[in-house]
Every structure is written in C-alpha cells, then in structure tokens.
Amino acid sequence: KAGVTQTPRYLIKTRGQQVTLSCSPISGHRSVSWYQQTPGQGLQFLFEYFSETQRNKGNFPGRFSGRQFSNSRSEMNVSTLELGDSALYLCASSLGAGDDNEQFFGPGTRLTVL
Amino acid sequence: AQSVTQPDIHITVSEGASLELRCNYSYGATPYLFWYVQSPGQGLQLLLKYFSGDTLVQGIKGFEAEFKRSQSSFNLRKPSVHWSDAAEYFCAVGAGGGSQGNLIFGKGTKLSVKP
User: Fold this and answer.
1) Chain B: nearest CA to A42, how far in angstroms?
2) Block means of pLDDT (10 residues each) for chain A, length 114 residues?
3) Residue among B33, B100, B19 at smallest CA distance from B69
C-alpha cells in the first residue's frame, strides 16, 4: 500500500507570492492533518480535516488555508508569502479521526521563500 | 495550555549502550502521549503511544516508554542502541478533542551514535 504522498517535494518562491501544496493520503484514510516544521519553532499544527470538514485549526494567520476533497486528498495554500514561511510542511493521514487512529506522515514539502 | 518539553537538544551514545530520552508534558487531564522518530529527509514515524492502562508501553524497533503521572514524564528508552537509531526523536501530546490529528510536539532530541 502506498504511503502518504506530498507534492512537490521542494519549492522555491519569492516574497509576496502564493503557494499550494498537495497531500494524497493513504488509500482509505479520511483524516488529513498538516504541520509546519522549522528549526526555531519546531513542529506546529496547522489544520486537520476529516471528510472534507476542518476539525481543528492551529494558531496561524489567515494567510494559511486548506481544504480537503471528496477523495480525501488535501491541499494547503499560503498567500502573500513571507520569509518566515520557509519550512518543511508535513502532511499526515489516518483512517478516522478518533483517538486510536494512528497518523502516518508523508516526507514533507520543503518550501523556501526568497 | 498544553506543552511538551524535551530538555536534551542533542545526545551522543556509543553503539550498544543504553538510551533514555526525556520528555515532560503539561496537560490538565489524562494525556495521550506519543514518541515519533524522524530520519534526515524523511517524515515522522510513530514509535509508540500511550492512551491508558499499563504505564510501560512497548513500541517498534525495540523502544519502550514509561508514563509517570507524578512526574509528568514519558521517557523513551532502549537497552542497546544501534547505529541505525541515529535520528531526531519527538515527544508529543494530543491536544484533545478526541483526535490524534492535533498534536503538540516537543522541540526534539537529536541522537548521534558513536561506533
């Protein structure tokens, strides 16, 4: 069974641009979460989606948004990029949204903002 | 507010030696606790988790962790480290809401293994 797929793996953008990252969960998984990983702040939760509905949202500005499609694939969008948005963005999927559902992480998308 | 502290940023151990990585958490109720490992260029892999019950939990790759409520700790241990264990280790607590999808992570401990 294929794992969580994230595209693209690497991305370079300039300040002010916007970017869309994609996550394809493991087949059959309906829950997708996004995290930002930076050397300074570590791993921070962005949002969680289950069956196309946002269940939880982290403490990030409105420039960060996401969505989930009917096939459980998810995208996150960052508008008006800032230098501080340079990070590894990780997506994780799980079968459901309950406490006993293990999350499986993708390899991440490395975003560099110049 | 919930938080996770991993006091050791970097640890170096010799191959074959025992390992203990420390994790302290702050959480109002019974926490859901996790340890993840991240190898360079890779995503996170779940090593083990604690929800309730036996406070000593076994995980993959020979790791175990012990939940101590009185000390608000969930330390990760391995009796004999292998060179392939070199990676970064993250402790996390579930932020509640009945979901594993919203985790609060510690800053991580980088493990180096000497031959």
Assistant:
1) 5
2) 92 97 96 94 93 91 97 97 97 80 90 97
3) B33
